[in-house]
Amino acid sequence: MIEAIRRIGEYALEKEGKSLDNPLNILVDDPANRDTKNILFICLESGKNGFEYKGVELEEYSRSKLSRYLYKKGEGARGTDMTPISMVTGIERTFETKILPWFKKYDKPRSDEEINFLVKIGACIRQNKDEILKDLKGNQDKGNNIISLRIDSKYLEDYDIFQRILVDRAKKNLYSKYGKVSKSGNQICSVCNQRMAEVYGFVDTYKFYTVDKPGFVSGGFQQEDAWKNYPVCLNCALTLEAGKKYLGNSMNFNFYGFNYLLIPKFVTGAGEETKKETFKIIEQQQDPKFRRQEIKRLTSSEDEVLELMSKQKNYLNINFMFYDAPKGYNGAVFNVLLYIEDILPSRLKKLFNCKEVVDTIDIFGECMISVFENKKKTGENPLEFNFGVLRTFFPRVSNNRTYDKYFLDIVNKIFTNKPIDYNFLMSFIMQKIRDDFINDYPTKISTLRGFMLLNYLNALGIIKHEEDGNMDNKEPDVDWEIFEGATSSEGGEVSTKVMSFFSRFGDFFDSDAKKAIFLEGVLTQKLLNIQYQERNATPFRIKLKGLNLDERQVKKLLPEIQNKLEEYGKNYYRTLESLISKYFVSAGDGWKISNDETSFYFVLGMNLSYIFKTKKESSNGGKENE
């Protein structure tokens, strides 16, 4: 991964016209966030005996002036930044902890002239502290602000001393930490494999290599010997810094409560023009002016580029770094949650091809999902597969538990073509459906999302059954004897629909027990519809045991349903009842089906009951609950 980040850094430096000979332009950070509007400048003017305070000026923040602002985040949340400029977290707090202390903690200047310059600035600020605070508070606006200095109407960049201090401090962080110094001369850099005048031991891109505790240094080395584990030269450290910034700005995406970096790694032989074209594709997709609205997505993020990457040839591998950064991308805390390596564009193409197959299945296209914007419903869209379908069953928080670990584990398996345990997945699908059912919420969307997820994973060939390995995509066996006797027009209509359905989803209806359970769910929903029409209530729901069903309970339900239909005088479903009975007989006893799977096939039948509606049923006032 380090090599990939270095190559990205080289591209970024070339694209932005930056040179390793001028490290300043590489090192400066953006002090703002999305809500930042203005910079509050503490204005000083030089005089005969020092500096005079001239008030606070408000200037609109501009990203084009980053080099002028000369900001670089310092080490630690409570310490000062590398130059006297900071994001406001409270006017008084920022002034007291970031600006004032800076003029007591700066590195030793190189000349008496520099010492006098900084001492006089610090003295002026301290002498006018109360007035400065009053003016800062009076000029702050509702958005986020930045505090900096303007000396003789000039920016910090206009003074060599601030430039030098920033570079020296940034360089020092590469070899001086934890009260130790780790560097050596005339050694091989582990990144570029070149012998360099100096290498450093504390380069910690993304914080995944740290030596903040002696035990973290392998081989029994002391912290000062960390350079032996991971020696990095200044040029490579700067290039990695440029790569990190580029990734944060151009390849940083949202993923259902997580962020991830998309990190392309080109294979040997990939030309420079090919690399540039790949980066250009990604950059344009993130630009709203060029974004293609019709792009297919596996996530809900509008700037997703996965489909575009799937159309590339296999001259690159794609890596995904899922991370958590509670204090921001450049903050002190950066936790790598999952790193998925070496995904070829052809694998992404398969993910999209399977999505296309599943999205065209009519039972999913007929299921309309509400679309919300700012918590207001703006319309409806057909159900389509994306990773949000998976997130339905592995939410961030549910019943005071988090399912993030399970979610990321399955995401990893989908990308890397690893098997996913069917029973494990089914248990979480049913947990969500049962919650909806018990709380008297509609179960249709969660049920169809569960069936869609199973169909998608089956299309990928990664659903694993404990007893017989992965599901086989095979032609279903239709037991024609089951359908004998269904000769009436009504019976033939139902039988045809049932045969057609089981044939289409043969991988899932591979036993007569599953078929019987499903059809009994269909029949149950028809009874509930009649009850609602007659009584404006559905008392038979209590018989469903909160959708925690087993073989015994399912077999017991059939005569109870038939009796209720007869009581209402609306038993239009004799062919359906006959099919269920025949499947029960054919299935025998001792089904090897878990309670979760039994309950899922049952509730799936309930929510797809409308498919099996007959003309006779409609003419007698039957109304389906969709």
Write the SSE topology.
Layout (H helix, E strand, L loop, with lengths): L1 H14 L7 H5 L8 E12 L2 E11 L5 H4 L16 E2 L3 H9 L2 H4 L6 H16 L1 H11 L4 E8 L8 H13 L3 E2 L2 E2 L1 E6 L6 E6 L25 H4 L4 H17 L1 E4 L2 E9 L5 H15 L19 H5 L5 E9 L10 E9 L1 H15 L2 H4 L2 E6 L2 E7 L4 H7 L10 H13 L3 E2 H17 L5 H17 L2 E3 L3 E2 L18 H16 L7 H24 L15 H18 L5 H14 L7 H13 L7 H5 L7
Parallel strand pairs: 1-4, 15-16
Antiparallel strand pairs: 1-2, 3-4, 5-6, 7-8, 9-10, 10-11, 11-12, 13-14, 16-17
Helix pairs in contact: 1-10, 13-18, 15-18, 17-23, 18-23, 19-22, 20-21, 20-22, 20-23
Over the alpha carbons, how many angstroms does the gyration radius reach? 33 Å
Low-pLDDT parts are: 472-478
Shape: elongated
Structural class: alpha+beta
- Please give the share of residues in helix: 40-55%
Structure characterization notes:
The chain is of the alpha+beta class and 626 residues long. A hairpin with a 3-residue loop joins strand 16 and strand 17. The radius of gyration is 33 Å and the shape is elongated.
TL;DR of this structure?
This protein has 626 residues and is an alpha+beta fold. It is built from 24 helices and 17 strands.
Which descriptors would you attach to this protein?
4-stranded mixed beta sheet, 17 strands, alpha+beta, 626 residues, single chain, 4-stranded antiparallel beta sheet, 16% strand
